[in-house]
Design a protein that fits this description.
The chain is an alpha/beta fold. It has a 6-stranded mixed β-sheet with strand order 6-7-8-3-9-10, with helices on both faces. A 4-stranded antiparallel β-sheet has the order 2-1-4-5, with helices on one face. It has 8 helices and 10 strands. The longest helix has 18 residues. The protein has a single domain, classed as P-loop containing nucleotide triphosphate hydrolases (Rossmann fold). The structure holds adenosine-5'-diphosphate (ADP) and magnesium ion.
């Protein structure tokens, strides 16, 4: 079943007098529990399409449905509520709070969004920290962690609310190759464990090869979509 349906969307940014076309008539769908990558050079539209799917921005034209809800017509408040209940985010620059420990960073969305009871919260935080292999570092602050460890904490933070969909815009751009591949493989394992759909972007060929579905962007258009047969079979089990 499709979790994300993108129907003929275009996005133009207004720069003073000029319109900058960032996405041009894109139609595609993304299945539940898919592991999908948007790839393409800088300026091809990766961040724009992730922001539209992630309800952080609106298309100029077209329709986007996420988890059965048409999101392009939501107002700011409705978008915020939808984001909090359905989506998780992982950022290129990790975006952890420097004064909070790994545990507190992961707990934060539960405190802010879900208002969970303290005891249940602890269980949920420990479960995702365990899943990403960061239990032993849970009391460390970001400056005591390596880049790869920070991104593991960020993956746990994105998952702690049990979102249906996690969006990650160039999550490995600040990591060395080996660490980057490990972080993507961790995301893949988390898809398997929690059945969460993951959509990430990258401009790195070695990283994109870890995806099961690859949409290639060039100048705001999808020029190729590829699905890897072995992973399709896995997904259908
Ligand atoms: P990518 O993430 O692949 O590097 P982006 O989605 O950031 O690409 O950008 C796509 C195009 O839209 C580029 O031409 C970029 O310059 C333009 N663009 C992105 N954000 C803005 C903005 N806020 N205002 C004007 N133009 C923008
Ligand atoms: Mg970008």
């Amino acid at each position: 079943m499709a979790l994300v349906e993108i129907d003929n969307i275009s996005k133009n940014y207004q720069m003073g007098e000029v319109q900058v076309p960032a996405l041009k008539q894109i139609t595609l769908s993304i299945d539940e529990a898919a592991f999908v990558s948007f790839v393409g050079p800088s300026g091809s539209g990766k961040t724009t399409i992730l922001n539209l799917i992630g309800c952080l921005d609106k298309p100029t034209e077209g329709k986007i449905v996420v988890d059965g809800k048409q999101v392009n017509t939501l107002d700011r408040k409705q978008s915020a509520v939808f984001r909090g209940s359905v989506l998780g985010y992982i950022f290129q620059a990790f975006n952890l709070f420097p004064v909070l420990t790994a545990y507190e960073n992961v707990e934060y969305p539960l405190v802010m969004i879900k208002n969970e009871l303290a005891l249940k919260r602890k269980e949920q935080v420990l479960e995702v920290l365990e899943a990403v292999g960061m239990i032993e570092q849970k009391d460390k602050r970001p400056d005591q962690l390596s880049g790869g460890q920070k991104q593991r904490v960020a993956v746990a933070r994105a998952l702690v609310t049990r979102p249906k969909l996690v969006l990650a815009d160039e999550p490995t751009a600040n990591l060395d190759r080996k660490t980057a591949i490990n972080v993507i493989r961790l995301m893949h394992d988390m898809r398997d464990k929690f059945n969460t759909t993951f959509i990430f972007s990258t401009h790195d060929a070695g990283i994109m090869a870890e995806a099961e579905v690859i949409h290639t962007l060039e100048d705001g258009r999808i020029i190729q979509s590829k699905q890897y047969p072995s992973s399709v079979q896995e997904g259908e089990k």
